[in-house]
Amino acid sequence: DQQVKQNSPSLSVQEGRISILNCDYTNSMFDYFLWYKKYPAEGPTFLISISSIKDKNEDGRFTVFLNKSAKHLSLHIVPSQPGDSAVYFCAAVGSGAGSYQLTFGKGTKLSVIP
Amino acid sequence: NAGVTQTPKFQVLKTGQSMTLQCAQDMNHNSMYWYRQDPGMGLRLIYYSASEGTTDKGEVPNGYNVSRLNKREFSLRLESAAPSQTSVYFCASSWTGGEDQPQHFGDGTRLSIL
């Protein structure tokens, strides 16, 4: 059973508007969450992360929100740019002995239309 | 700025053949990882090495072996390739396995098994 779910396989947004990518998780032991961005024929690159003790983390145009009670997080990109077009993966990790293992969602393909 | 380098980038094998995928990082990271990504799926951890001299199984280790040759290099071996192992393989590294240590990925090896 999928522990990290990205239910939207794709998303299209106009340049300059906000992109919102969603992620849900089921494992209550997850306490750190990361977003990775992936271009075709390249490896994923780290984008932004958030600890479960926070509900928001911001880095430039990228903001991640965490709602622990709903087991839901979202990535906001404002304003969206054509170079943001990529596949975005949500990943989660638990503390302690299992902290080496990232659990990834299936990804959401974002297309930013000029 | 090489980061994580994987060789080869592409490979076609016949069922039953063996092969070793190579990975090297130049960031002096302690921890290294091997993932596979199947179409429409997230990345799944095959094996990881928390530090030089140690290796541990991830989510999908069956059919694979790994060697942490030294601090820089971590190889993945398929002893008898099967069509189910057709995938894109990503190597990654991080300072430690701590949840706040983002993993840095190579560009992948695309492996097809006929």
* Sheet of most strands of chain B: 7 strands, mixed
Number of strands of chain A: 11
Q: If you compute it from the alpha carbons, what radius of gyration of chain B comes out, rounded to the nearest whole angstrom? A: 13 Å
Order of helices and strands of chain B: EEEEEEEEEEE
The topology string of helices and strands of chain A comes to: EEEEEEEEEEE
Mean pLDDT of chain A comes to 93
Strand content of chain B: over 45%
Radius of gyration of chain A: 14 Å
Biggest interface? A-B, 28 and 27 residues
Let me know the number of strands of chain B: 11
Query: Which segments of chain B are poorly predicted (pLDDT under 50) over 5 or more consecutive residues?
Result: none
Oligomer: heterodimer
Strand content of chain A: over 45%
- Main beta sheet strand tally, sense and closure of chain A: 6 strands, mixed
Number of helices of chain A: 0
Spans of chain A of at least 5 consecutive residues whose pLDDT stays below 50 are: none
Shape of chain A: globular
Q: What count of helical segments of chain B does DSSP give? A: 0
Describe this structure in words.
The complex is a heterodimer of chains A (114) and B (114). Chain A has 114 residues and is mostly beta strands. In chain A, 0% of the residues lie in helices and 55% in strands. Helices cover 0% and strands 49% of the residues of chain B. In chain B, β7 (64-68) and β8 (74-78) form a beta hairpin. Chain B contains no helices and eleven strands. Chain A binds chain B through residues 4, 9, 31-32, 34, 36, 41-46, 49, 51, 89, 91, 93-95, 99-107, and chain B through 4, 31, 33, 40-45, 48, 50, 56, 58-59, 90, 92, 97-100, 102-108.
